[in-house]
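can u do me a favor
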């Protein structure tokens, strides 16, 4: 009888200890440790980081054999020189766009050119601010992401000496953002020109045609306009 009681108490102690361990002794995740706690403090946090699913992008294999040639050398999960190989399996909508579009934005081979992989103070994990509005009064700070690589002064979107990028951006109250005419990742058209421009819930055709030294645009916001960088073209005034 005594031994039965001892065995019963022993079994109870084992069960209680296991339950307590399961409830209160979970192993710490990467983002709550001393090394990576700051990855979850920004306004926008990548979903795998938020959920502690570091293994979706990273490997725990720290052997020398596992090291690819990019990023955090021992931890990037996919053995590839392109970081996009890690991102695209989850972002399949962008992957399909890249597969079907002949004109690609060069940074898409390395998503971290424009995006932070873990967290960011900006929408869509962008490294710098970029407005999500189509019509906005021009402020250089709203396009800080684009101006990491592009400048208004060096644009090829000119009719003679007239800077047509600046012309589209500077219209007070109805300036067009880069998003009005350009796709950020890839497009069927040269210069990443969109097929359609979103406007008040509608998709309006842009109808852009490139030429050797310029192009023609017959967007819904204006009639057909042509431009040439070498010799300015006189378009009809007005719409």
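np, heres the sequence
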């Amino acid at each position: 009888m005594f031994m039965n009681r001892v065995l019963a108490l022993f079994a109870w102690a084992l069960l209680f200890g296991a339950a307590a361990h399961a409830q209160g002794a979970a192993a710490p995740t990467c983002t709550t440790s001393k090394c990576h706690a700051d990855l979850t403090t920004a306004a926008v946090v990548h979903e795998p980081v938020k959920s502690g699913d570091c293994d979706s992008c990273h490997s725990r294999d720290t052997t020398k054999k596992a090291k690819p040639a990019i990023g955090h050398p021992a931890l990037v999960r996919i053995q590839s020189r392109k970081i996009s190989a890690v991102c695209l399996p989850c972002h399949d909508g962008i992957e399909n766009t890249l597969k079907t579009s002949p004109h690609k934005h060069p940074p898409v081979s390395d998503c971290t050119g424009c995006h932070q992989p873990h967290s960011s103070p900006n929408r869509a994990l962008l490294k710098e601010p970029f407005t999500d509005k189509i019509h906005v009064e021009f402020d250089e700070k709203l396009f800080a992401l684009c101006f990491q690589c592009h400048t208004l002064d060096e644009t090829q979107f000119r009719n003679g000496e007239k800077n047509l990028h600046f012309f589209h951006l500077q219209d007070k109250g109805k300036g067009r953002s880069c998003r009005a005419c350009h796709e950020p990742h890839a497009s069927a058209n040269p210069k990443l020109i969109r097929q359609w421009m979103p406007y008040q819930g509608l998709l309006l055709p842009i109808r852009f045609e490139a030429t050797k030294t310029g192009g023609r645009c017959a967007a819904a916001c204006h009639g057909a306009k042509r431009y040439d960088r070498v010799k300015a073209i006189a378009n009809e005034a007005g719409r």
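The radius of gyration is 27 Å. hope that helps!!
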